[in-house]
Amino acid sequence: MRRRLAIIGLIVLTPFAALVGWWLMPEPCVTAANCERVGAGMTLEQVEEILGASDEGFIGGDPVGAFGESGYEGVKIWQGGGCLIVVDFRDGRVRHKLFDEVTPWQRIDDWYHGNDRRPALVMAMYYVCS
């Protein structure tokens, strides 16, 4: 009798625990809606308020504040939840942005073939900005 009660308890509590865990998960910051909120002329700090801090450093540019100018130059990438947002900064302000959503199948295919979408998006950003 105890064993049967334990099994029934597990069957009932497991989906409930999964539902509570899903409900308590924070919303991802890297979304198409948040990408739309990022506008030309915004500073890095303003973008980070919307998208959160990026784990990536600047690509193709350096912080130029050390040379007496304000701001950063280069491309910065935010990724999460199967999405990528690439933002191009010039003179410390957003110049362009790109959004890419990767389906689960594309992620599996990229993993299997050893592909990384970030370099292609950075190249696309430089092409758009040229």
What would a concise description of this structure say?
The protein is of the alpha+beta class and 130 residues long.
Name a few traits of the molecule.
Beta-lactamase Inhibitory Protein, Chain:B, domain 1; 130 residues; 3-stranded antiparallel β-sheet; alpha+beta; 46% helix
Walk me through this protein's architecture.
The chain is of the alpha+beta class. 46% of the residues lie in helices and 18% in strands. Strand 1 and strand 2 form a beta hairpin.
Classify the beta-strand content into a percent band.
15-25%
Q: Give the neighbour order of strands across the main sheet.
A: 1-2-3
CATH-defined topology: Beta-lactamase Inhibitory Protein, Chain:B, domain 1
Outline, from the CA principal axes?
Answer: elongated
| Distance between the ends | 73 Å
The major pleated sheet works out as: 3 strands, antiparallel
Order of helices and strands: HHHEEEHH
Number of helices: 5
- The CATH class turns out to be Alpha Beta
Instruction: Enumerate the spans where pLDDT stays under 50 for 5 or more consecutive residues.
Output: 62-70
Radius of gyration: 21 Å
Domain count: the total is 1
Structural class by sheet pairing and helices: alpha+beta
Helix content: 40-55%
Mean pLDDT: 75
The CATH level-2 architecture is identified as: 2-Layer Sandwich
Q: In total, how many beta strands?
A: 3
